[in-house]
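A note on notation is needed here, since sequence and fold are reported together in a single record. The reader may check this reading against the record printed directly beneath this paragraph.
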Amino acid sequence: MKIGITANPHKPQALRLARTAAERLRPQADVVLSHETSKALGEDRSAPSLDDMDADLVVAIGGDGTFLWTLQRIAAPLLPINAGTLGFLAEIDGNEPTAFEGALERLVRGQYYIDARMKLASQIGGRNLPDATNEVVLHTAQVAKMRLFEIAIDGRPVGRIRADGMILSTPTGSTSYSLSAAGPIVEPGVEGIVVASLAPFPAGPRAVVVDPLRTVGIRLVEPGKHGLVVVDGQSEHPIPGGEAVTVYRAARRAQFIRFSASFFHRLGGRRILPWNDEPAGSDEGGRADLPPPAS
């Protein structure tokens, strides 16, 4: 088995965990570090980039930005390990040594399952943009400038709205930027495209969930009023006024390596759900954790 490792090169803790992971996994697997990680650790500078890494699975260490950046470049299953400040998408907290070491052991023994998540593909003028795990956002090019946006479904305009921007989100991204725009929380197994507006005027109902088999187009109506399309907060793409970004379900899915099956348990303690995280009399029943590795 070939295991790739990538880490945020600007986070010392992420690099320390990457070195530890490589040392622990090498006796049991073929380990390859990404070019950026290998360079930061002072190892093989000829190591492949993520785009060229032919790994069976990849361990990413950092925060959500690291995970989203990695998922734009790989098709292999990803084990996200938090060494950042948020790590909402993370499966393991790298600051917990027992959990970290246990995750590496489960990895080589195949004691995990794959959580496949819908991604969004998008185009501007026929040019493909990177797939999004969380969201595709169309902002105005000038900060705090409200513009008129036109929304089209399957190529047919269905309405217009004045706002600072529009968010097209996956269910995974429904607890990210879309949530700050009053978008709904969507369980990842319920596929759909969340269409939410940023600071609309007049204020009103602010989000719609669209069938994932449809295409959604967003256009800055006024010519000369340019915009900026941002994919997962990682890549930016200018868009001329009058032109649309078209978004639809991607052919490829984001694949997360998971040890626990509870989406709602993962949200616990983050003050995201619209009910108390730990109601009186609750217990740990219903969790679907996999058994620990055999001794």
Notes: The two ends are 21 Å apart (CA to CA).
